[in-house]
């Protein structure tokens, strides 16, 4: 059977990734509702689009897990934090996206190291999406007057 050849650590990465993607769905959905309540319609729409993208990531993980013969097993949904401003919300997103980037980066390297190219490419595809998200959040913060972090201060790249 196919799943017999998948390294247990790869399955662990998939489970952790699913927990983080569902957490991202909850976080962006909450932020869309907050932004709307603050009268920031454009920001609310943008957070809603992010919510959909994170749902699509979760769906990719669910399909991959089913394809490997395992049940989707997200176990830890972290609470969406409270914030008083749009900048605060985006800072929370920076933290979460950096964590997701770090996980996909580690998972990609691990799979490549053990010669599991199929799962390595799967994780790398998600990694590229999340690097893009992280860069978009930086650009958004910059547009709000928050200076871009120096490379040595960044949690990723
Ligand atoms: Fe995601
Ligand atoms: Fe993301």
Q: Your description of this structure?
A:
By secondary structure, the protein is mostly helical. The protein has one domain: Ferritin, core subunit, four-helix bundle (Ferritin), CATH 1.20.1260.10. It is about 70% helix and about 0% strand. The chain contains four helices and no strands. The protein has helices at about 10-35, 40-65, 85-115, 115-145. The longest helix has 30 residues, at about 10-35. It is elongated, with a radius of gyration of 16 Å. It starts with 7 loop residues before the first helix and ends in a 14-residue tail after the last helix. The model has no long low-confidence stretch (mean pLDDT about 90). Bound molecules: fe (ii) ion (FE2) (2 copies). One fe (ii) ion binds near residues 24 and 57.
């Amino acid at each position: 059977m196919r799943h017999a050849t998948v390294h247990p650590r790869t399955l662990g990465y998939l489970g952790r990734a699913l927990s983080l993607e569902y957490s991202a769905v909850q976080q962006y959905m909450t932020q869309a509702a907050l932004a709307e309540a603050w009268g920031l319609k454009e920001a609310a729409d943008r957070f809603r689009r992010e919510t959909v993208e994170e749902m699509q990531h979760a769906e990719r993980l669910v399909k991959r897990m089913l394809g490997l013969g395992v049940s989707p097993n997200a176990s830890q949904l972290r609470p969406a934090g409270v914030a008083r401003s749009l900048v605060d919300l985006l800072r929370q997103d920076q933290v979460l996206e950096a964590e997701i980037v770090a996980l996909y980066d580690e998972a990609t390297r691990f799979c490549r190291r053990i010669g599991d190219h199929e799962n390595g490419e799967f994780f790398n595809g998600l990694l590229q999406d999340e690097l893009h998200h992280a860069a978009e959040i930086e650009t958004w913060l910059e547009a709000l007057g928050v200076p871009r972090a120096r490379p040595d201060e960044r949690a990723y790249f």
